[in-house]
Design brief:
By secondary structure, the chain is mainly alpha-helical. It has one domain (20-153). Helix content is 73%, strand content 0%. It has six helices and no strands. The chain has helices at 2-13, 15-39, 47-52, 64-91, 96-117, 128-153. Helix 4 (64-91) packs across helix 6 and helix 5 packs across helix 6 (128-153). It is globular, with a radius of gyration of 17 Å. It starts with a helix and ends in a 9-residue tail after the last helix.
Length: 162
């Protein structure tokens, strides 16, 4: 509990910390959705496999140590991507979930589509459902990260009635 108070205080005082923590929360939410969709065969790979394929040939990303490397890279990327969103929402506070949704779409367009076209990843998705799945997961990232930014940056309000 004390750790959570320290994190909230740091997030209120530092926009970079706010963005990084919120991006991490958004990324973890995205990973939960990805795991569910992977289990029901609506996604061909977990994000740890996909991100790991930047460094490792696709056939080796299923090894636990390689998956872990990819997952760490994925979480770092999510934390970094939360920082511009935090600055945006600090500047304009209206409609954070809509802005988060749009930001999620933008990250999908950049990371998933443009980087894939540039052949940055050795894993390739072959089904349309995987493309839609990653779109949904990236919008989850954006909305959850945006709501985390709003929640973590709120000042504690007094309810004593003074």
């Amino acid at each position: 509990m004390k750790m959570w108070k320290i994190i909230k205080m740091a997030c209120r005082e530092d926009t970079i910390m706010l963005g990084a923590i919120s991006g991490l929360i958004g990324t973890l939410s995205m990973d939960i959705a990805n795991l569910f969709l992977y289990k029901i065969h609506a996604s061909e790979a977990l994000w740890g496999h996909f991100a790991g394929s930047i460094f490792i040939p696709a056939r080796k990303t299923k090894k636990p140590q390689n998956f872990l490397l990819g997952q760490i890279e994925h979480l770092i990327t999510g934390g970094i991507l939360g920082i511009p969103l935090a600055y945006t929402l600090k500047t304009t506070k209206k409609y954070p979930k809509i802005k988060g949704w749009g930001y999620g779409l933008a990250t999908w367009g950049l990371l998933y589509n443009i980087f894939a076209k540039a052949k940055l990843y050795s894993i390739k998705h072959h089904t349309s459902i995987s493309y839609y799945s990653t779109l949904i997961q990236n919008t989850i990232f954006g909305v959850v990260a945006a709501q985390s930014i709003v929640s973590l940056s709120e000042e504690k309000t007094s309810t004593s009635g003074h």
